[in-house]
Here is the input.
Amino acid sequence: MDRLINYNRMKFKLRNVLAYFVAWVFILIGLVNRAKKKALKGDFILSIYFHNPSKKEFEFIIKWFTKNGFKFIGVDDLKKIINGSMSFPKGAVLLTADDGWASNFANVAEVANNYKIPITIFVPTEAIESGNYWFSYAKKAKRLGMGYLPSKMLKNVPNAERLAVITEIKKKINLPREAMTISEIQSIAASPWISIGGHSHTHPILPNCSDDELESEITVNKKKVFAWINYQIDTFAYPNGDYGVREMNALKKEDFQIGFSNKPEYLSPQSLNSKFNLPRIGILEGASKAENICRMVGVWHKNTLKVF
Ligand SMILES: [Zn+2]
Here is the structure.
């Protein structure tokens, strides 16, 4: 088991070293500067998401953007920009975080409060209740060689099959809590800088759900968050970034205002026309600063590079 963890760590380190050199090439040939200029001119908003960054990583990103003349907007501003009551901003950054990891409490929420930076945290309610994410059970079972389908493959099977496998694994192993608690969600939601968004109830791959499962994943998520913080969530991030027309329509039906994908593209005036299909660029926790700067200004991905 330890050997597998060590091997994966080594692979990640090696990947980070290679990526670090690629990132410096992007910086040295001026790509980062060009992207920065375009964003500051108001060609697009930088829409960025995290999972569980360290305090250092999150703080570095806030400081870098501030130093470079950017300002932070929240999802409420974005809704105003979409409905036309606020003009398209120059040099704007929108921050979101997925899953409600326990470390977010100190590393994201506290830092956002200190720097007065808006951020939306998308929570899967079942994980907040139980303490763990289903994919962590699947990963642990794989490390222990228990013979169940690994999490990658569980993302490709019908939802009922995924749930059955995870229920079996849960009977056999325990995990320490990974997600924030309900009272932590209540505490961070009281901040004017932090808003809570939907991320489904059990974090399934929504396109693998039946129509009924899809509806229940969205409505249970919404009801639970309302019961916890007395707030009707109207912003959603698709778990694993997987969605289609059916999922977008389901959000609309449940009175959501906006939906985020994990499609790494700029939030351009044009992309705002499809408000249940808003792109976000992922920060890679554990990667070099140089790589994450490339990600932050959107020159790390093929899709965004098309702009240059
Ligand atoms: Zn997620």
